[in-house]
Amino acid sequence: MAQFQYVVTDKKGIRREDRLRASNLDTAMQTLAKKGYKVVSLREVKVAVDASALPPIYEQIQVRLARIKDYISLNTLVFFTRQLSTMFSAGLTIEKSIANLMVEEKNHRFRKILAKCGNDLKKGMSLSEAMSMSPGVFDGLYTALVHAGEVSGSLHVILEELSDYLETMADTRRKVISALTYPAIVMFFMVLIVSGLLIFVVPQFAEIYAKFGARLPGPTRALVTLSQLLSRNVIPFTVLIIVAIVLGWLGSMTEKGSRIWAQIALHFPVFGLLVKNSIMNKFAKTFGILLSSGVPVIESLGHVQRVVGNRVLVEAIDKAKSMIKDGFSISVALKKTDVFPATLIQLIATGEETGEMDRLLDKAAYFYAKQVDATVERLTSMIEPIMIVTLGAVVCTIIVTIYLPIFKLGFALQRGL
Fold it and tell me: What is the rounded average pLDDT for all residues in the chain?
């Protein structure tokens, strides 16, 4: 959320000055108009943002809703960036390139965003400033790289590197999601099957046993009690689960909650390694492309903090930034956080010694991308049999527990005969 300084007059003509927070200039203008103010002046105030500090929950919800509202697929953004680079390097102006891409764009939502961007360019804004007006599509990293390209005079090169970077991130995200999707689906169906057995099947057997007055074994009694508890309280249980999910989601937006979720993600058996390698790939790739674009180290790390998406890493980078400001080298600062792996630190240290930091970071990103590939392959081969065996074991346990009184009756009859 940006901060705006405004001077307005109210309905009585009284002059007022203050600040307000809004997602962009148009939203700030609309907010003041709704209050009945006549705007005299309105400008954005650039404030130093602590990338490690979480904004208030309501602001996080607003940002997430804005991203949902303005959602553009990563593939669409990659294609746009590459096309923009090609047109600009061919000699077209940015304004003309945006206009051409807007005409060809099939996505109605993205076409409106490009139209707004084109109008902002006509008002005299730079490309990075125009893009920053749509933070739901062009995030801080994107606009920072575009700004670096504008300042250095190599915008077409930066845009080409940016499109490659976005493709790499999309590929990594796709691999991680593919590895996590299968177990999530199996777990979902496992819950459905177990719930169906407890709600519909177990009560029928319980009625049959009750008619015969049979004394049920301990495991069967426990299963029947659980079945009765679940079948009689389906709605309360459903509401409780929904409330727990919502509270967990809101809790993840707090300092403590986000830290707990981050720790779970990094240390979860098997999947934690996949998540960590994915984050290291994102860190190295993002940091490398920012440094190669001429963005200062501290500013680059600030942008990286917004990209890694894990609270533990965000706080570690914040500590590293403070140590770098105090004179420590990048590799030493990262090592002292006790979060970053030795391989990455060694490559960064080599990059500092040779002056080829961006190239070494690119090698680190490639290394962790390969680690992600290897982990995904192992998970794909291991998870399917493990999940099938787990599902079968759970269902078999329930069925055996249901039929346990019948088995005991059969053994008793055999001994009697």
Answer: 81
